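Key result, reporting period 2: structure in, sequence out.
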């Protein structure tokens, strides 16, 4: 049995959602199911309501079950603090009663747990695997004691699941068993993808300057007019105003650029599938970007797009690097050259994802099975 300790909320539930991580959690569960493992998601997600939420068990699929602990009403800060403590107490009781020596517990790294899982591991002697998606201390200055002591938490696990190779190098100093999963290696069904008159290049994601959208817009000056560049994503009013101002400056030179707003759910997938090339250009000097793997790359691949990215160290140290069209730098002219190179070497994105999916399923066996 695999127990997966996460902050997870099912669709339409009245629990706090983990928007950034739930799609990847779903994929990891499916991968473990595919290799013959049953999974119980242990969720400490709190209620969003002003009334008591009972503990609940939901069958998500044939081999995956979701368990919510009960949660106190969200009335004020004191009740919230008590609710957090109550969640930890329920977690400890559940582990003592249900988790056996030969079981594996995969824990999604959260600062809230601190040394709790290390304590439970010593008592119950289960196989403890820690999933690390980001290193908080690397990019969050804080006077909080447990953030400064974050690295102490990393000595307790028997094995690790990392989102990129840089985290593995930074954390796994004792060379314990580990697996790297950069994103979601799963394709989406494509609905009648048709070839347009122009080649559509899309940037999807945050409009913050350090995320690279400015470089993408500037690269349009160097592209042939057979290309059109589309920006979709979210940001503050200030971010949107900056993007529109940069777009205005490109008019009449190179390819057309438009900001098309925000797309979500099925409309987002449909929009991506109408494009030909997805682009991911990030600020190479930004410390946060260094430890965060750009998940939009797999959003592009899963919808059948060619992918252009700049030469980031976390990409260079990943399995996906040989399948990307790499710009030698984030300079707009180099980005444009990488976009144009897609026509010379069209890659089968679905075949790429299939290879990575099969490799991950084989690798994860080594850390979840004793």
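The corresponding designed sequence is given below.
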């Amino acid at each position: 049995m695999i127990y997966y300790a996460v902050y997870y909320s099912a669709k339409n539930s009245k629990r706090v959602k983990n928007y950034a991580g739930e799609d990847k959690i779903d994929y990891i569960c499916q991968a473990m199911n595919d290799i013959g493992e049953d999974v119980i998601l242990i969720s400490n997600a709190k209620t969003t309501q002003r009334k008591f939420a009972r503990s609940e068990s939901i069958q998500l699929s044939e081999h995956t079950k979701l368990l919510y602990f009960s949660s106190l009403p969200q009335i004020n800060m004191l009740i919230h603090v008590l609710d957090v403590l109550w969640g930890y107490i329920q977690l400890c009781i559940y582990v003592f009663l249900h988790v056996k020596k030969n079981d594996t517990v995969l824990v999604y790294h959260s600062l809230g747990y601190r040394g709790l899982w290390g304590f439970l591991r010593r008592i119950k002697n289960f196989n403890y695997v820690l999933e690390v998606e980001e290193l908080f201390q690397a990019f969050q200055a804080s006077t909080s004691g447990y953030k400064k002591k974050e690295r102490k938490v990393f000595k307790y696990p028997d094995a690790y699941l990392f989102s990129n190779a840089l985290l593995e190098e930074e954390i796994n100093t004792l060379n314990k068993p580990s697996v790297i999963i950069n994103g979601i290696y799963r394709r989406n069904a494509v609905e009648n993808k048709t070839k347009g008159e122009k080649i559509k290049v899309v940037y999807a994601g945050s409009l913050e300057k350090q995320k690279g959208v400015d470089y993408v817009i500037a690269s349009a000056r160097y592209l042939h007019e057979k290309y059109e560049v589309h920006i979709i994503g979210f940001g503050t009013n200030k971010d949107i105003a900056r993007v529109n101002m940069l777009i205005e400056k490109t008019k009449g030179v190179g390819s057309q650029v438009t900001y098309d707003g925000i797309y979500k759910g099925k409309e987002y997938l449909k929009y991506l599938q109408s494009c030909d090339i997805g682009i991911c250009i990030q600020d190479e000097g930004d410390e946060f970007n260094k430890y965060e793997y750009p998940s939009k790359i797999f959003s592009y691949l899963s919808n059948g797009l060619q992918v252009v990215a700049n030469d980031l160290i976390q990409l260079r140290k990943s399995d996906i690097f040989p399948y990307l069209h790499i710009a030698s730098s984030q300079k707009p002219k180099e980005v444009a050259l990488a976009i144009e190179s897609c026509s010379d070497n069209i890659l089968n994105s679905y075949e790429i994802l299939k290879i990575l999916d099969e490799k991950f399923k084989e690798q994860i066996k080594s850390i979840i099975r004793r």
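The mean pLDDT is 90. The chain has 15 helices and 14 strands. This case is discussed further under Risks and Mitigation.
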